[in-house]
Amino acid sequence: QVQLVESGGGLVQAGGSLRLSCAASGRTFSSYAMGWFRQAPGKEREFVAAIDWTGSSTSYTDSVKGRFTLSRDNAKNTVYLQMNSLKPEDTAVYYCAADNILWAGSKWFPGDLKIWGQGTLVTVSS
């Protein structure tokens, strides 16, 4: 079983950048597709991005395309979400998730995931 720990959240001004990391434990990390979700106060958890186990296939929700980049380093058991040109509406708790069945080339739904990190808070001030 893979366990996930996110880091890198914080407070940033609009237009700024942050890089979130998700460190995984477990020898089978490289066989898992990885994804990021976010949940703003009072809203449902929503899909942000996903990457397949090779790192060659990714998908993004429309609102972050061109601003966020998801990558992974299987040697370090870590995935990275580089977030640029941040907007106040990006404010949320960001969660990392893992799955060894879902295809990373399409949107994921929270109910399909069983492996989650604890979340890291991103606050973007205007």
Brief description of this entry?
This protein has about 130 residues and is mainly β. The protein has no helices and eleven strands.
Instruction: List segments where confidence is low: pLDDT < 50 over at least 5 consecutive residues.
Output: none
- Beta-strand content estimate: over 45%
User: Outline, from the CA principal axes?
Assistant: globular
Instruction: Compute the number of helices.
Output: 0
Mean pLDDT: 95
Structural class: mainly beta
- The rounded Rg comes to 13 Å
Helix content: under 10%
Structural overview:
The protein is built from no helices and eleven strands. It is mainly β. Strand 7 (68-73) and strand 8 (78-83) form a beta hairpin. It starts with a strand and ends with a strand.
Features:
126 residues; mainly beta; 7-stranded mixed sheet; 4-stranded antiparallel sheet
Give the secondary structure arrangement, pairings included:
Elements: E1 3-7, E2 10-13, E3 18-25, E4 33-39, E5 46-51, E6 58-60, E7 68-73, E8 78-83, E9 92-99, E10 115-116, E11 120-125
Parallel strand pairs: 2-11
Antiparallel strand pairs: 1-3, 3-8, 4-5, 4-9, 5-6, 7-8, 9-10, 9-11
